[in-house]
Structures are given as C-alpha cells and as structure tokens.
Amino acid sequence: MPLTEYEQLRLTGEHWRISVLGEHLLRYEWSPRGVFEDRPTQVVTARPWAPVRAQVRREPGAAQVITAAFQLDYDGTEPAPSSLRVRGRGTYQSEWRYGLPLPNLFGPALGLASNLGGTARTLDGADGPIDMGEGLATRNGLSVLDDSASCVVDGERLLPREPGAVDLYVFVHGADHAGAVEDLYRIAGRPPLIPRWAFGNWWSRYHAYTQGEYERLMDRFADEGIPFSVAVIDMDWHVTDVDPATGHGWTGYTWNRELFDDPAGFLAGLHGRGLRVTLNVHPADGIRAHEDCYPAVCEALGRDPSGGLPVEFDLSDPAFRRAYFEQVHHPLEDMGVDFWWIDWQQGEVGPDGVDPLWRLNQLHTADMAARGRRPLILSRYAGPGSHRFPVGFSGDTVATWASLAFQPRFTATAANIGYGMWSHDIGGHIFGVHDDELATRWLQFGVFSPFNRLHSTDDPFAGKEPWNYGAPAREVMTRFLRMRHALVPYLYTEWAAGAPLVRPVYHEWGDRPESYEALDEYLLGRALLVAPLTRPRDEASQTAAARVWLPPGTWVDVLTGIVHRGDRFLTMRRGLDAIPVLARAGSIVPLAVGASTENPDELELLVVPGADGAYELVEDDGALEPATARTRIEWDDGARTLTVHPAVGATGAIPAGRHWRVRFVGVGGSARGEG
User: Fold this and answer.
1) 3-class DSSP assignment, residue 277
2) pTM (whole model) above 0.85
3) What CA–CA distance (Å, rounded) separates 390 from 380?
4) Rounded to whole angstroms, how far apart are CA atoms 351 and 391?
5) Are 37 and 167 in contact (CB under 8 A)?
6) Cα angle: 504, vertex 508, 509; to 5 degrees
7) Dihedral angle sign, alpha carbons of residues 238, 241, 243, 246
8) Residue 378 to residues 345, 359, 385, 624: CA-CA distances in angstroms?
9) What is the Cα–Cα distance from 354 to 175, expressed in whole angstroms?
10) What is the pLDDT of residues 371-397, one digit of tens each?
11) Is 557 in contact with 564 (CB distance < 8 Å)?
12) How far apart are CA 570 and CA 470, in angstroms?
C-alpha cells in the first residue's frame, strides 16, 4: 500500500482516538465515556498538526498506521500489552507495548529500556548522583509521555481527568533526540524569552544583610571589576521573628526595618548600580496579621482583620489568588522587586490535589507577562512542561566534590525533557569545608552553565566573594566572572534560538555510540563543548583531568588555543586557571567587551579557523514582545575573510557606531574594526 499525504490524520473509535501529529509523534486516547479532550492540560498546551505521509488500514474497531518512523497496531479494545503496540522503523527496530512491566515513564505501567534520564524536582541535600527520572531520549529511539493524570486547564480552573482515561504521546525519533525535544516544545510550548540580564552573574547568600552592608558589598564588587547583574536577597529581607502560634518565620512579606530602613531607596540604589533584584519567599503559611499587607488582603477577601486570623495559603481559591498577587506581590514589585525566588515548604499536593509548586510557577510566570514583563522566576522543577517557567532552582546544594561532579551531568540530562535552565547554588550551600580549588572549579562550571548564581550559607568560611580565597583562586575567579558577562551576547542568542541551552553531546551525535559514554561533558549552545573539571588536581602535576570525547572534526580549546583532532576520547589536563571549553573549526562566538549585560557598544568575535562558518547574532529592545535585530556574520576559510553584514530588523536596538574586534583562536592574531 503506498504512502498517502495527510494534512491531518485522526482515527476514532467508540472509546479511543488516535491522532498522528507528525511523522514521529502520535497521540493515543482512551475514554470510558467516549469523550475526548482537546483543551490544554498542565503539560500539553497545544496539539498542532503537521503533514504526514502514512499508510492507514481500518478494520472494524481497529487500526494500523505506518509512517516512515513507526508502525502502530491497535485492536480497538481497552489498552493492554496485547492490544496496543508501536514499533520503530528504519535503524531503530524498537517496540513498545502498553502496560509492560518496564521502568515507568511519567505514568503507571509505562516504560522503555535504555531511557537516558530526565531531571528531578530538587537536589536538596544530594551529595552525589540521584535518580533523574526519565525523559524523551532513549537508546532504542522510542519514548512515551503519559499525560493521563495532568489536569485540564479551563481558563483559570484546573479540572481533573475522567477516571480511567488514558492520554499518551508516543515519540519515535530514533537517535534524533533533539528532534524529540522539538516535538515536545511543539505540543508543550516553548521556553519563553527571558530578560537578557538574567545571563549575567547572580549574587546570593543566606545571610541577614543590613541595607548598608549589602550596598557596600555591591560597591566593592564594582571597585574590584567583578560584574553582577542580579542581586538575590534571601529570606531575612522580611520579618522572621513571628508568633509561633501562627507558624514559623520562613513565610513573610513585610520588610525587616531593623535591617532595611529604606526598602524603596535600597531597591532604587541597586537598580542604579545596574542590578536587578529578586526576593526569596516561602508561601506556605499564607498571610498573617503582622504583615503590612494583611488589612488589604482581608478587605479583598471580605474578612474582618480585627480577629487577626491567618489567611491560609490556598491557590485553588480564585479570590486568594487575586489577593496574593494584587495585595501582596504587586506593591513590592511596584517598589522595585524585579522577580521572585519561590522557595520550598508548600508541599506537593494542595487542597484540590494539584501540586502547589506547579501552580505557583505557572501563576507567577503568567502574572509577570500580564504586567508587561518578561517571565522570570527562580523555582524548583514541577514536572514535564516546566520548561515554560524559567529559571530552575535546584535546591540546597551540598558543598562537596561529589556534589559538584554530578551537577554537569544533571544539568545536561535535563534537556531530555526540554529543561535546559537549571540554576545551582554555585560553590555549594550547606556542609563542606573551605576549599579554594573546589570553589574555583565550581565557579568555572557555573560560568559555563545556564545561569551562574553564586550562593552560600550564613557561615563566615563559606562566602563566595573571591577575596575570601587565596591569591591564585581569587585571580581565576575574578577572571571567570568577567568572562561570564562577556558571554552574554552568545548565551542570549542561543537561548533565543529555542533549543535547551545546555544539552548532552548525544543530542547532536546520537548516531555515535561514544556520545552515550560522554556524560560529563555537554554542549553550551551550538558552538561550545564544555568539560568541567570536577575532581581534585593531581599533586605532582598540579593539574586536574577530564576524559573527553571529541566528535568528528577539528576542535580548538578557546581558553588555551590548543588544537585537537576529533573523533576520539582523550584526557585533558588543566591547571587551576582553565577548564576544557572547545569549539569546532568554523565556529563564531560573539563576546561583549565590558561588564554591562545590555546590547554592547563593542563586540569581540571569537573565530575558529579551519572551516567555513556563519553565525546570526540576535539582539532586541528587551520588551515582552521584542523588536529584534539580527546580524549575520560569515567566515570564509578559503579566502580568510570575515564579513559582518549590516543588521536587519529593529536596528534601533543596537548601539550606534558599534565597534568590533576579532580574535582568532588556534592560529593567533587579532584585528579591530568598526561596523
């Protein structure tokens, strides 16, 4: 039977429906009542059709669908191993049957061997590897996303599914793991465009700063030429000494005037220093009588404030949700708070059975967009679909080598479920000892991770200020923190490109068995391969080592200029001043000159000769719906010519009279020009 072109391919029986959403993606539904769901869910926001070429066979109550990627066989009865089967075609002759007792994949009675992992809700207290769950990348090329338990989104309401209903998405992408993630984004939404300044350095510490102490610290960073773009204020910004009868001091929304005597002036001062500000909140205890906002919240809810009864935290109540934002958070945002760090304590199941973490992430993200701001929060992962709610807070990190050694793999593997946005406690938060080498290696990883948020506990030996360490570590830390701000044009462009910012190498080289062994290195954007050093150095050589697989081609370490032949494993050793950061021949990496995270007046183009290459730099005006400018840059290796084309689009977003530098790595040489 020949393949037929379908604009939309859907088959329906009395209790089942099969929707072929693309060559590699299908949806299977079972409804005891014969009622199928077209509304969005917590995970799936849309189900766009893509043209598909397929063979379709229909028999009474049954169906077979064959595409270039898969064959589905279904007998029309209640889903069971004998009734529902999907087989991969081509190179990956894999097979999945519903209900087989394999490791679960997002739901009951589902699973596939060789799943390459996804991510976890948190790394709280993790001192080494933890279970990362399962994602869409598998060695057998087939995976299943079970959306049966996810609530239906009906306006502001979250509605439970029909009891006994089954709602599955089968991804059959073979070794094209990036394609599986792209199909996930097609049905579950793309990560939103976040503010450019979020890609700079973040300063955070669990410490009861006074207003003056914090301001002096930021001024010292500036005096030392150490750039930061985000100031994180942990929970001591608010009153913590509360009546135990009403709960504990973790929850709070009222400035502690003993520490911050002029909150509005404090926030304005940080903004004047070029910093954006986030405050830590633990929402679990609701709104209590000592809060400044308590009378307004009571009025909004029609309650009498004179009794002093706490307003319970309940996001299932629409009236509470409105008061939570309009009376509690919006006044603080109007004062100058740029976004929120949504911390722990609200549990995993709310009064309506919905995870409050998911609700908080979704509501805060939507509220920011409704107020004309680009969505940005700092919060834990709440399951598949959480890539729509950046940025991910990985929890209280243990300050040990074992903890650091796991973080690169954990960060990259999350891309298998589309979550390329982890922010770790760089340097470690709890336990551990003061260790110059560990702190430096962790910071180097942070600089080449999605978000670089330095953090520590309230311990005088744990502070992450570079001057707290010996001269060699201090110099390296300072240089790498400056390097992070130089990377902002590249990081922002790569985020805007739409793929997870950090990915395992098998997302690009999934047809190479070696890529599945190279789990402690990762791709940062499209141009850079990073292999963090996560173990102590050898005392004899004073270097640390990483075993690195280089994919085929010629690679150049952009920090050292060393040229490597690819298609092999090799051991790379570096002193404290570097880690392996490699780019393929033909790569072009745009770097900012200066500390600002704004569109820079001067750019340096890092060019890796050896092959032709091109790059399109993306910049915009920072608006929620941005006006975007694109600058195409081309390297002709044979002619040894670099061309910077005139920007197109919203060129007003680009500084007039921009200056350009060029730096060639692997061959030496530099140039300077204007464009």
Assistant:
1) strand
2) yes
3) 9
4) 26
5) yes
6) 95
7) positive
8) 15, 14, 16, 18
9) 35
10) 999 999 999 999 999 999 999 999 999
11) yes
12) 31
